[in-house]
Each structure stands twice: as structure tokens, then as C-alpha cells.
TrEMBL record:
Cross-referenced InterPro entries: nSTAND3, P-loop_NTPase, Restrct_endonuc-II-like
Domain Novel STAND NTPase: 171-329
Stretches the record annotates as Disordered: 713-734
Name under which the protein is recorded: Novel STAND NTPase 3 domain-containing protein
Length: 749
């Protein structure tokens, strides 16, 4: 008998409606999912209206099924149809059919109007075209038959088989599935692209399952495409699955030497060959763009064979159906399901953090699925997913993966993946934890969507990582604060100065996003000698907080150290010295590095002015104030190239040299000449407000009036401007509020 357990009750009703329509050659009406009044399906025959009630009971006993049937009698009596069918997936015996028939005998022609699982199975055999429209059913049934006949393949691919069987019942068949089937049928290759969490792997698994049920041997490629070449068998139908075939980082980083050619050759071979060989690939959209830029053969192959399928984000209807399928196939208690039916679903499917992984967790055995307040607990988990992280962190992550989550706390919120990998490798080495390129990518795959997120810059050239949200950072910081060994290892292994300042900043707090962590700052105080040593070691390191700089010649950006890097680091030195004292010679060495940069005209002038004030006021460094002022003054005076330079130089003269600008006629003429050239350019100069004030300070009132005129022209509103209006497009029936309310209303009974 076919495997009806993969279907939800809604999916079973749709199946039965199609079967009855084919059996009686008529249109069968399907009513909205909800309080049906005893009608799931209705159709008209010569004798009048007929109705059918569907009962898809997975784990019930016959006694429960019979009790449910009794509750329907009053409804059927009220409707009084010409004929009534009672249809269930329960495998009924003759006597059980008779007992159900006795309840509805006034509206049935006989016990054969009670259909059990075997009867539905027989109808499917008679109407095979109907079965083809319900892929979850025939795919799962055919797959089980394949495993039974090929025990050796089943054993060899056991992990893949288990993943497919687990995901299939909850899978929501979407238009993307049919598109993927058509691509695979036409070209033998289907490349599924899309953002993380969109369901690429699950869709690929469904395609695998379909072909397994059709007799194809499954081959899962895990390392490189050479595995597929080695596994090719001329005499057998085979389907190959290569998940994340372009890797987690970039296409070039993933592929070994010549793999691009081997991959292209395999795609060409399958695309131009017979149907006995199929290939399914998945990748993330931004990585695919990189691949097409770097490897013209991949772009050329797709343009000729059109094997790419791009998946988009979940819409409201898909979110609702995914949640419904997870709930229906779960052990969530009746009281909790009633809470969902009574509107509890709204705060879940509309939540900004909606994620199928969190949906799976909140409908699983590890979650409280019986106590009152289930929708609130569910929503609270979406609000604060860190509540599930403790279990996942401790029981499901390896030490290597745990260290990756924790070391990310020490890096800027947007961190280059390469910098994260370097910091993580250093920490692992310090603690004696083995890590490799492969295991790092695997760790990213495990953590993405739960603890971290990976994304690209706007030019799609660089890959970044960050914690999924700030509460993940708080969770990881708490783990660090609770383990002195880990904190000491982070300090010893730090390769970026900012790893130290970030930790301290999170511990000390003082802002909305960093309220402070008393345990962490206390532990840092105990480890202050290691902290100071690490500061001295990394003071000259490159910065992980890279700044994007636009390149006009290439219309793209490159990332460089922020200009204020050294000033910011010296500011941290002053902060630590005020709290825990720094050796004077260490402080002098750090300041000498700063002054060396200023002499080479490197740094950020605004930050330099701020740090000069701090040096002048700080007890341990006030002796360096004169040297700092001298070096900074020379830098500012010799680099008056743009409006920013003039602004900082003028402020410096006023603040530190006690200069009245209207007494400096030579400098005033120099400024007037500079601004005349700037105002004569096609593009207006920056900082015009500040430049007007500066002209007033110099006593250049004619120049001030000219700048005022330019400012007025810039701020005049555009008469042709109209705000861009937009409206939400119409949604399909399955995305309507009414349909979704009636869908979840099924759980009210």
C-alpha cells in the first residue's frame, strides 16, 4: 500500500478530490480548509449532490476513528445529501467498514461507500495520472520500493536516505518543484540557486527521491566533481547530487586545480547525452555570480542549455503552509494546536525572524509542545532564539564550531570571512583543536542560519560574516565570561588589535547595543597582564574593520584599513592605562608609532585632533603633548588640499595655537584663492556650511556671500519631484488572510 503518512490532511483531501473527479468524470468542489460543516468534497451526479468526508488519521486507533465518525452524523443529517462517502487512510477490515456504514446507512448505497487505505490505493492504481499530480505520495512509495530491492545502495547512501525521508513529509510542493523537474527532464542538469535557507537542498532532495523511485542510483558528491566521474557507470541510470558545489566562500576558493574544466565537461556530457544520467547542483546566488564572472564556460553552458533555476524568498502562503505541515506532522498537543488555530499562527508566519529551522525546532520534541501558551513560547523563540542556542551549542556543536561562534564576538560586526578564518585558526591552534579549510567550511554550513549569517558586499566581491543578531553575541560573550581558559586563549591567540578592544568594549558597556557584562570585565581584569601583552603584540597589525573605498576607474570598491586605525588604538591604550596602568615604556612605544604615521601624513585628521586632546589631559602622557602638537601641526599645515584639510587646520589653530583667524591675512588670501578655484568647478565642494563659517572667521565676507548663494541653489526643492508611490500586489487564494485562517482553523477541532 502507498505511503500516505507523508501527506498532511489537506494534501490527502486534495488527493481524494482528484481521485473522485477522475472516477466520476466530474468536477469535485473542495471547500476552504476550516469549519466545514461536514463537507470536505462535493460533486453532482444524476441523483443529486454527493458529499465526502476525509479522515486522514496517522496514529489513531479504530476506536478514535469511529468516535470521530459518530460526531459527523448530526452534520450529515442536517445536509441530507443524495450520497455520502466516508474516506480514510486507516486500513479498515470488513467488520470495521460495516460499523462505520451503520452510522451513515441512510445516505450510503452500501459498505463500499466507506473507503479505507487499500481502497484509496486501488483508486490510485486505476487513475495513475492523478497520482502523478501528487509527487510526495508516489515519490515516497517508489523510493521505499527501490531501497527494498537495492539493499546495498540503501546501506551505502543511508545518510542521504534518512535526510530525504525526514524532510519529505514537511515539504511544501511549490511551483519551483515543477520548474526544476522540467529543467532536469529537458537538460539532465539542474542548477538550483538562491539565498541561504530558501530550500535549495530540500528541493534537490525531492528531485533525488523522485528519480530514486524511478530506479536511478543516487550518488552524493561531497568533496569534488571527480567523485562523480569515478562513480559513473555506463550500464545504470544514475542521479548525482552536489550540494553547495561552489562552496561557502567563493567559486575560486572552493575549486581544486582543473575542477572547473572537469565540472564543465560533466555538465556538457550530461546535457548532450541520454536521460540515463542526471545531475543536480545547488549553490548560493552570490557565489554563482562570482563563478560566472571567473569561469566563462559555466556562463556559456547555461546560456546554451538553460539549466539554472533561481529560487526566491518565502511568501506569506509558503510560510503558512510550511508551518502547517510541520505542525500536522508533529506531536504538538491538542490544546497547543487550538491556541494556534485561535490566531496564534499570525505572530509566527509574519515574524521577521521566521526561519524553517526554528519552525522545525518549535514543533519538535525538544520544545514544550503541551503546556498552555504555546504560540507565545514559539514567538518568544523567534524573538530570542538564544534560548534554544544553549542546547544546540552544547550538544550539537563540535569544539571547533563553538570556538568559531565565540571568536566572532571579538571581531567587528561585519567581518571578512578570511579574517574570521584566520582568527579562528589561531584560537584553535592555541587550544589544540584541529581545524582545516574543509572543516572550517563545514562549520560555516552548520552555523549559518542559526548562529551566524554570511552575506556579500554590494559589489558581490567580498564575503562577510556576522552573528545572526545581537542576542547571539550576548550568548557567546556569556560563554566566554564563564570560561577563563577560553578567554585566556583568545587573548593569547589574538591576531588583530581590535579583538582586544572589542572584548573590553562589550565588557565595559556604556551604550544601548553594549549594556556591559560585569562577569566579562571582571575576568578581563584578572587577565590584564595577558591583555596588555596582546595589545603590545598586535598594535601594528592590520585592521579587521575594513573600509570600502570607491575606485572610479573600475566602478567598484576595494577595502583598506580605516584611516583612524592608529588613533583609535591609542585611545584604547589611554583607556586601559586609566583603569589598570600600562608600563610607561610600552605607552611611549605606542605613541611613537602614532607620531611616525603623522609624520608620513597618515591617519584621520579628525581623530588625530581628538587624540591630541586626550594625550594632553591624560596623566601618564601629558609629557608627550608638546611633541604630539608639533608633529600634528606640521602635518595639518603642509596638506591643505581639500575642504576637510582647511576645516581641521583652522580648528587646530584656534584650539591649540590661540590664533584669531582674522589676524592671519596671508592664510586668509590662501584660503580665498583655494575656495575660488573650488567654487569654479562643475561639482560643488563638500562642507560648504563649514567653509562659509571659516570665510566669516577670516573676514572674507564677499566669499561668504558667494558660498551662501551656492548653498541656496543646492537646497532649492525640485519642482518636478513626486514621491514614489507603491502598493502591494494581489495575493493568491492560499496567501489570503481568509484561507490561512481557515487552514489553521483545522486545529481547533
Amino acid at each position: 500500500m502507498r505511503e500516505f503518512s507523508v501527506l498532511s490532511d489537506v494534501e490527502f483531501e486534495e488527493l481524494v478530490g482528484d481521485l473522485l473527479g477522475a472516477e466520476h468524470d466530474t468536477l469535485v468542489e473542495r471547500f476552504a480548509a476550516g469549519a466545514d460543516g461536514g463537507i470536505d468534497l462535493r460533486w453532482r451526479l444524476s441523483e443529486g449532490f454527493c458529499i465526502a468526508q476525509c479522515k486522514h488519521y496517522r496514529k489513531s486507533s479504530f476506536a478514535q476513528l469511529l468516535d470521530s465518525a459518530r460526531k459527523e452524523v448530526a452534520k450529515v443529517k442536517k445536509i441530507n445529501p443524495s450520497r455520502y462517502l466516508f474516506i480514510t487512510t486507516f486500513d479498515l477490515s470488513v467488520s470495521q467498514k460495516d460499523r462505520i456504514h451503520s452510522l451513515f446507512s441512510a445516505w450510503m448505497t452500501g459498505p463500499d461507500d466507506v473507503l479505507g487505505g487499500k481502497d484509496v490505493d486501488a483508486l490510485l492504481t486505476r487513475h495513475s495520472d492523478v497520482e502523478q499530480r501528487h509527487p510526495k505520495l508516489w515519490v515516497s512509495t517508489g523510493m521505499q520500493l527501490f531501497w527494498a530491492l537495492h539493499a546495498d545502495i540503501a546501506n551505502r547512501t543511508d545518510a542521504l536516505r534518512q535526510r530525504i525521508e525526514k524532510s519529505m513529509p514537511r515539504y511544501v510542493v511549490s511551483p519551483g518543484y515543477q520548474s526544476a523537474r522540467e529543467i532536469l527532464a529537458s537538460h539532465n542538469v539542474c542548477l538550483i540557486s538562491g539565498p541561504p535557507g530558501i530550500g535549495k537542498t530540500t528541493l534537490a532532495q525531492m528531485l533525488m527521491a523522485e528519480h530514486i523511485s524511478g530506479g536511478y542510483e543516487p550518488i552524493e558528491v561531497s568533496a569534488d566533481i571527480n567523485e562523480a566521474w569515478v562513480s559513473l557507470r555506463r550500464d545504470a541510470p544514475q542521479i548525482f547530487f552536489y550540494d553547495d558545489f561552489l562552496g561557502q566562500i567563493t567559486f575560486a576558493e572552493r575549486l581544486p586545480k582543473n575542477e572547473d574544466k572537469r565540472l564543465s565537461d560533466l555538465i556538457e556530457k550530461f546535457s548532450t547525452g541520454g536521460s540515463a544520467k542526471k545531475l543536480i547542483l545547488t549553490t548560493r546566488e552570490y557565489i554563482l555570480r562570482d563563478a560566472k564572472l571567473n569561469y566563462e564556460r559555466l556562463e556559456d553552458l547555461d546560456s546554451r542549455y538553460h539549466f539554472l533555476l533561481e529560487l526566491k524568498d518565502y511568501d506569506k502562503a509558503a510560510r503558512a503552509q510550511i508551518l502547517y505541515n510541520h505542525l500536522w506532522h508533529s506531536d504538538v498537543g491538542p490544546a497547543c494546536l487550538r491556541e494556534i488555530a485561535n490566531g496564534g499562527y499570525k505572530g509566527i508566519i509574519g515574524h521577521r525572524s521566521y526561519n524553517p529551522r526554528l519552525v522545525e525546532y518549535c514543533t519538535g520534541r525538544s520544545f514544550d509542545v503541551d503546556s498552555p501558551g504555546y504560540p507565545e513560547r514559539f514567538k518568544d523563540t523567534l524573538d530570542h532564539p538564544e534560548k534554544i542556542w544553549k542546547v544546540a551549542f552544547e550538544k550539537h556543536l563540535t569544539m571547533e564550531q563553538q570556538l568559531l561562534v565565540m571568536v566572532l564576538c571579538t571581531l567587528p560586526r561585519a567581518t571578512f570571512l578570511e579574517n574570521l578564518q584566520d582568527a579562528h585558526a589561531s584560537l584553535c591552534e592555541t587550544l589544540g583543536v584541529v581545524t582545516t579549510e574543509t572543516s572550517f567550511r563545514e562549520a560555516l554550513d552548520v552555523l549559518e542560519g542559526t548562529f551566524i549569517t554570511i552575506y556579500r558586499d554590494r559589489d558581490n566581491r567580498y564575503t562577510f560574516a556576522r552573528h545572526l543578531n545581537p542576542s547571539v553575541t550576548e550568548f557567546a560573550l556569556a560563554r566566554i565570561a564563564a570560561d577563563r581558559r577560553v578567554l585566556a586563549a583568545i587573548l593569547r591567540s589574538a591576531i588583530f588589535f581590535e579583538q582586544l578592544s572589542e572584548l573590553y568594549s562589550y565588557g565595559r558597556g556604556g551604550s544601548f547595543i553594549r549594556p556591559g557584562n560585569a562577569s566579562l570585565i571582571k575576568l578581563l581584569a584578572r587577565e590584564k597582564d595577558r591583555l596588555l601583552l596582546a595589545m603590545d603584540t598586535t598594535i601594528g597589525s592590520r585592521s579587521p574593520a575594513q573600509l570600502g573605498v570607491h575606485q572610479a576607474e573600475t566602478a567598484s570598491r576595494i577595502f583598506v584599513d580605516p584611516p583612524e586605525k592608529m588613533e583609535t588604538r591609542i585611545q584604547f591604550y589611554l583607556q586601559i592605562d586609566a583603569e589598570w596602568n600600562i608600563d610607561p615604556t610600552v605607552m611611549q612605544g605606542a605613541l611613537n608609532l602614532l607620531f611616525s604615521q603623522w609624520r608620513r601624513h597618515l591617519g584621520d585628521k579628525g581623530s588625530a585632533s581628538t587624540i591630541l586632546k586626550a594625550i594632553s589631559r591624560h596623566p601618564s602622557t601629558e609629557g608627550f603633548a608638546g611633541q604630539a602638537h608639533e608633529v600634528l601641526h606640521a602635518w595639518f599645515e603642509s596638506t591643505l588640499n581639500d575642504t576637510h584639510d582647511w576645516y581641521h587646520y583652522a580648528n587646530h589653530l584656534s584650539d591649540y595655537d590661540d590664533v584669531q583667524l582674522d589676524d592671519m591675512s596671508e592664510l586668509a588670501w590662501q584660503f580665498e584663492d583655494f575656495m575660488s578655484q573650488e567654487l569654479g568647478k562643475e561639482k560643488s565642494p563638500e562642507n560648504l556650511d563649514e567653509m562659509k563659517s571659516l570665510a566669516d572667521d577670516f573676514g572674507l565676507y564677499g566669499l561668504s556671500d558667494r558660498i551662501e548663494e551656492v548653498l541656496r541653489e543646492e537646497y532649492e526643492p525640485d519642482d518636478d519631484y513626486e514621491p514614489d508611490g507603491s502598493r502591494l500586489g494581489d495575493v493568491g487564494d492560499r496567501g489570503s488572510d481568509a484561507y490561512i485562517a481557515e487552514l489553521f482553523g483545522r486545529f481547533s477541532d
